[in-house]
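Practice problem 4.
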C-alpha cells in the first residue's frame, strides 16, 4: 500500500534527523569546552540570581544577570526569547537544575520561565545557562504521521489520498465573496476565490513582498463569516505573529498558543497565557498560587537563615509540606487548564506554530487550516496541523529557502522535499494561484529575481516601483542612497576568505570592514540604523560584523534568519573569495533570492566578481548591475 509506505519512510527519515540533531548537540558539548561554548553564545556562566518571581500561568520566573567583563559581544548574543534552556544552580540547591524558556533577553541579563517549580530560595553562588534542543516536536510529528497513515473514511483520509496523488481534489461553485479588505489586487482576489471554492486544498504561491499573509487573513475572515472554525499555523513564531498582528484588528475572537516569551511583546495580549490571566475565574488560581508561595517561603525562611533549625525539622513534617506545595501547584494548573480549554473552544481562530500544538489543548475540530511559510516546513511537520482540519490552504514560495535539515542521509532520502514542493507538481492549475504584484522593492531590485526565479511575472506596485532611500525623511541624496542597486566588486582587493574553526563557517575580514564603511556612509546620509540590515550567508561573518559595529537598532544576521523580513536598505556580504572560484552553499539559488529581496529602496551587494562570476546566475547578476550602471569597485573605499 503506497500510502502506508510513504508514511513509514517519513517516520524513518525523521528518526534519522532526530539522531543527527542529537549527535550535533552532543558533538558541540564534547568538542567545545565551556569557554568555547561561551564564545559561541550557547552557554553563559557566572550568573547571579537577582530574583525569583511568580509569572504568567503560575510559572516561576528567575531573573539572572552578569556584570560586563569588557567582552566584544554580549554573553547572550546567540540567545533569543523563546529558546529552550537548562538552568544549572549552585551546589546545595534543590533542584540542582531546571529546564525553562528564555522569557526576556537583555545584553547582560535574562529572565527564565521555568517549566516546573523553582528553587526554594535565591541561591548563593553562580548559575549557568545552556541552550537546549527539544524532543517534543519529533514526538508530535511521529504521532501525526501515524494518525494520517491509519485514518479511514474521514476528511483526513481524503486529504491523504489527494496529497499522494491517489485521488483528485474537488471544487464547488462558491458564492462571490464580498471582500473585507477592499485593497486586495486582482491576483490576491483570485487566490481568495480559488481557496474558497476548493473543497479540499488550495495553494497560494507568494513571491517576496506579494502579501501572501494578507491573502491568508482574508481567507480566514471569509471562512469565519461562513461559520467555520479556523486553525492558522506556520513553522516559525515570527510567521505566526505576522498573521496574529493582522487578525487582532478584525474583531474576531483569536487566541495564540505557545509560550508567551515566543510571542512579540506588542502582541502578547493575543496569547493564551494573557487571556487566561484576564479571565475572572483566574483569581482563584492566583489565590492557590499565593498559598503555595507562602508555604514555600515559610520553608525557606526556616532553613535559609539557620541551618540548625532546618536540621531539627522533622523529616515527615518537611515532606508533608513539600507534598502540600506539589498538591497546590497541581490544583492551580488544573483550574488554569479548564480556563484555557474554554477560551480555545470559543475562539474563531486558533494560531500556533506547527510544533507548538499540544493535543491536550487542540482537538481536531477545525473546518480549515491555513499553513503560512509552507515551503519552510518539512512534510512530517506539516502533517501535525493537517491532522486537525477538514480542508487546507497552503501559502509559500518554493523559490525561497527550505527548512534546515541536519541529516544529509535524511535530506537525500526525501526529507528536503516539502509537502508544498510535492503539491505544486501534483495539484491542478485551478487549485494554485501565483501572486504577482509586490509591495516591497524598487523595480530595479525586483527585476533580477523576477527574471531568474519567477519567469519575469512580478510587477512592482506603483507605490514602490520608483522609491529610493534618498526620499526618506532626512536622508540626503548620495551615490548610494539615490540608487536602488549597487554591486561593490572586491576582485583584486586581496580580501581573501578564511575558515573559522570554532564556528565551522567562513568569514572575510576585508569584506566585513568594507561593509561597515558602507554602513557608516548610509548613516551619515541620514538613514537610521533601524532601517538598515547587514546580511551574510555565513554565521562566522555575521559574528565578525557584530564585533566591528554596534549601533542600537541595526540588525546584523544570516540570510537564512532574515527570511520573511525587510528593511529600507540592505547590505549583503557574500564572503567567498578564492582562487578556485568555489562558492559552496552560495550555489543554492534560493539563498541568493532571499538575500537580494529583503531590501525595499537600497540593495548593496559586496562580493568578489572573479569568484562568484564563475557561477552563471551570479554572472548574470553582475551583468544586471552593469546594465544599471551600478557596478563599483571596492578601491573607491580604500582611502578610508
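Answer key:
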Amino acid at each position: 500500500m503506497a500510502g502506508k509506505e510513504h508514511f513509514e519512510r517519513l517516520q524513518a527519515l525523521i528518526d534519522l534527523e532526530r539522531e543527527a540533531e542529537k549527535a550535533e548537540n552532543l558533538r558541540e558539548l564534547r568538542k567545545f569546552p565551556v569557554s568555547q561554548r561561551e564564545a559561541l553564545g550557547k552557554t553563559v556562566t557566572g550568573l547571579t540570581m537577582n530574583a525569583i518571581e511568580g509569572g504568567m500561568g503560575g510559572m516561576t520566573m528567575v531573573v539572572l544577570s552578569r556584570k560586563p567583563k569588557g567582552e566584544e559581544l554580549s554573553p547572550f548574543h546567540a540567545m533569543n526569547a523563546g529558546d529552550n534552556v537548562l538552568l544549572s544552580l549552585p551546589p546545595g540547591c534543590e533542584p540542582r537544575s531546571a529546564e525553562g524558556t528564555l522569557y526576556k533577553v537583555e545584553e547582560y541579563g535574562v529572565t527564565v520561565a521555568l517549566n516546573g517549580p523553582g528553587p526554594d530560595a535565591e541561591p548563593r553562588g553562580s548559575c549557568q545557562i545552556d541552550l537546549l534542543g527539544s524532543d517534543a516536536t519529533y514526538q508530535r510529528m511521529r504521532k501525526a504521521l501515524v494518525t494520517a497513515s491509519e485514518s479511514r473514511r474521514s476528511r483526513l483520509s481524503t486529504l491523504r489520498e489527494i496529497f499522494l496523488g491517489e485521488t483528485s481534489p474537488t471544487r464547488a461553485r462558491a458564492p462571490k465573496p464580498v471582500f473585507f479588505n477592499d485593497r486586495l489586487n486582482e491576483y490576491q482576489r483570485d487566490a481568495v476565490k480559488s481557496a474558497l471554492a476548493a473543497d479540499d486544498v488550495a495553494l497560494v504561491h507568494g513571491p517576496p513582498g506579494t502579501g501572501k499573509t494578507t491573502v491568508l487573513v482574508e481567507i480566514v475572515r471569509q471562512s469565519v463569516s461562513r461559520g467555520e472554525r479556523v486553525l492558522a499555523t506556520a513553522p516559525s513564531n515570527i510567521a505566526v505573529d505576522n498573521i496574529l498582528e493582522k487578525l487582532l484588528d478584525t474583531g474576531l475572537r483569536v487566541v495564540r498558543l505557545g509560550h508567551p516569551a515566543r510571542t512579540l511583546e506588542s502582541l502578547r495580549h493575543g496569547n493564551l497565557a494573557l487571556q487566561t490571566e484576564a479571565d475572572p475565574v483566574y483569581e482563584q488560581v492566583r489565590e492557590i498560587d499565593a498559598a503555595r508561595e507562602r508555604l514555600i517561603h515559610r520553608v525557606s525562611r526556616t532553613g535559609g537563615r539557620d541551618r540548625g533549625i532546618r536540621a531539627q525539622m522533622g523529616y515527615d513534617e518537611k515532606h508533608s509540606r513539600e507534598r502540600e506545595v506539589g498538591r497546590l501547584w497541581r490544583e492551580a494548573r488544573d483550574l488554569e487548564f479548564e480556563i484555557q480549554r474554554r477560551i480555545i473552544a470559543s475562539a474563531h481562530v486558533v494560531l500556533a506554530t506547527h510544533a507548538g500544538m499540544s493535543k491536550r489543548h487542540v482537538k481536531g475540530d477545525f473546518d480549515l487550516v491555513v499553513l503560512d511559510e509552507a515551503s519552510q516546513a518539512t512534510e512530517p511537520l506539516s502533517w501535525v496541523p493537517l491532522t486537525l482540519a477538514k480542508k487546507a490552504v497552503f501559502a509559500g514560495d518554493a523559490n525561497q529557502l527550505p527548512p534546515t535539515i541536519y541529516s544529509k542521509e535524511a535530506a537525500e532520502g526525501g526529507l528536503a522535499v516539502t509537502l508544498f514542493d510535492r503539491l505544486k507538481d501534483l495539484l491542478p492549475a485551478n487549485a494554485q494561484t501565483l501572486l504577482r504584484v509586490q509591495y516591497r522593492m524598487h523595480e530595479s531590485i525586483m527585476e533580477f529575481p523576477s527574471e531568474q526565479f519567477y519567469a519575469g511575472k512580478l510587477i512592482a506596485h506603483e507605490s514602490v516601483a520608483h522609491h529610493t532611500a534618498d526620499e526618506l525623511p532626512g536622508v540626503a541624496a548620495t551615490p548610494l542612497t539615490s540608487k536602488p542597486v549597487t554591486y561593490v566588486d572586491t576582485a583584486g582587493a586581496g580580501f581573501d576568505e578564511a575558515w573559522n574553526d570554532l564556528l565551522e563557517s567562513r568569514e572575510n575580514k576585508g569584506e566585513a570592514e568594507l561593509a561597515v564603511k558602507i554602513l557608516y556612509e548610509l548613516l551619515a546620509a541620514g538613514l537610521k540604523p533601524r532601517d538598515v540590515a547587514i546580511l551574510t550567508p555565513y554565521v562566522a561573518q555575521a559574528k565578525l560584523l557584530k564585533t566591528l559595529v554596534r549601533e542600537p537598532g541595526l540588525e546584523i544576521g544570516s540570510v537564512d534568519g532574515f527570511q520573511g523580513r525587510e528593511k529600507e536598505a540592505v547590505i549583503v556580504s557574500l564572503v567567498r573569495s578564492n582562487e578556485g572560484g568555489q562558492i559552496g552553499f552560495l550555489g543554492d539559488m534560493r539563498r541568493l533570492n532571499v538575500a537580494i529581496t529583503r531590501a525595499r529602496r537600497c540593495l548593496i551587494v559586496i562580493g568578489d566578481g572573479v569568484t562568484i562570476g564563475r557561477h552563471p546566475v551570479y554572472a548574470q547578476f553582475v551583468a544586471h548591475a552593469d546594465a544599471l550602471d551600478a557596478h563599483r569597485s571596492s578601491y573607491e573605499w580604500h582611502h578610508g
